[in-house]
Specification:
378 residues; alpha/beta; 9-stranded mixed sheet; globular
């Protein structure tokens, strides 16, 4: 944003704004993933379904990743044009972006392909595209909802989204473990929250679909997500809020985003305000964003807030009480009434010692701040 403000040419300004938008989208993804964990733990997701043309959505996602791959030697290809479908477009898009982000992170050369197709035959949906499968010794794993393939109503269909890359690939044990929460690849160096594929799996199961991951070490990875959707037939669509149960649902009470708040803890007022704006833009007015300027205020907010704090963005270095001590004290709160929040530590100090100290204090995820102190971009 600083670059955009200082730019003299329209092209330079547009490029800077585009980069800021891409970074804000990645922050949105991190926030959404962490917030989704609470819903997953309860075994349910609330889907906002309605008729939507997903082609512009997928085109935008491919363009966003392509912009972040400029100069890296990685080509981003988008193919397929699904018809208008009735589904939760936001959740489908976040699943695709999670997989695309992983591909971008682990692909140094070659290509990343985003492929979309709509089918009405479960066997066809399960069949992986041969031209996208990585070559070599392939290890594959599929997770599917027990009700997958039960297309009962006229217009019921399946949206298959495939992301394939020519990156580092995974060994069999990594494929098995990568959908668990807070699990990182052996070469990931704990970058990111480790929640992406965990959230993807929960989302496809909520849609009565399946997730397949096929990978060859040193050759690449293919991720195929299938969502049970409905063709948008004239006179039948409409927007609705719908709770779909996953395979492990215990009850049918919806967990709404508004039942918890987000706490931003930073002694720099500008940083805190920018983070607050980004969260509110990403998640909408239904989410209450609280602010604290040091660990002591954060501890008090977590204990006394009228709306339960479900997620904390915690700066590491602050006066009065730093982020590590505040995290320790939050983790030490006892009582049946207290539901501990997820804590994401944001800091400019990203050494292995810093990460280890954060983990020992009880931090759920660790994100390094970029060079600019006016925005938290990841």
């Amino acid at each position: 944003l600083e670059e955009a403000a200082a730019a003299r040419e329209d092209d330079e300004r547009q490029e800077a704004l585009s980069m800021a938008h891409g970074s804000a989208s990645m922050l949105d993804l991190i926030v959404s993933n962490v917030l989704d964990v609470g819903r997953i733990e309860r075994g349910e997701l609330r889907l906002e379904v309605g008729p939507v043309d997903l082609h512009p959505v997928f085109t935008s996602l491919a363009g966003m990743v392509r912009a972040r791959c400029v100069g890296s030697g990685v080509d981003v290809v988008h193919r397929g044009r699904p018809p208008t479908l009735v589904c939760d477009a936001s959740r489908v898009a976040r699943c695709a972006l999670n997989a695309l982000s992983n591909s971008r992170k682990f692909t140094q050369r070659g290509r990343i392909v985003l492929d979309t197709v709509v089918v009405d035959d479960p066997e066809v949906a399960l069949r992986l595209p041969n031209d996208l499968l990585p070559q070599g010794a392939l290890c594959s794993r599929t997770w599917r909802h027990p009700g997958f393939g039960s297309l009962q109503a006229d217009g019921d269909t399946m949206l298959c989204v495939t992301i394939a890359d020519s990156g580092r690939g995974m060994a069999a044990e990594e494929v098995e473990a990568c959908v668990r929460p807070f699990v990182h690849s052996a070469s990931d160096n704990a970058h990111g929250t480790g929640l992406g594929l965990h959230v993807v799996l929960a989302s496809v199961l909520a849609h009565h679909g399946f997730l397949t991951i096929a990978s060859a070490l040193g050759k690449g990875t293919l991720v195929r997500m299938c969502f049970h959707t409905t063709l948008a037939i004239e006179g039948r669509g409409g927007h609705s809020a719908r709770t779909w149960q996953s395979a492990s649902v215990g009850d049918d009470s919806a967990v709404l985003i508004g039942t918890s708040s987000v706490l931003v803890v930073d002694d720099e007022a500008v940083n805190a305000k920018l983070m607050q704006r980004m969260i509110q833009r990403a998640l909408g007015p239904a989410v209450l964003v609280l602010r604290a300027s040091n660990g002591e205020e954060a501890l008090r907010a977590v204990q006394e807030a009228r709306v339960r704090v479900g997620l904390v963005f915690m700066d590491a270095n602050m006066p009065v009480m730093d982020g590590l001590e505040a995290t320790r004290r939050i983790r030490g709160i006892a009582g049946d009434w207290f539901v501990p929040p997820r804590i994401v530590m944001l800091t400019g100090n990203a050494t292995e010692d810093d990460r280890r100290a954060a983990a020992e204090a009880g931090v759920d995820a660790f994100e390094a701040k970029p060079c600019s102190k006016r925005a938290v971009l990841s």
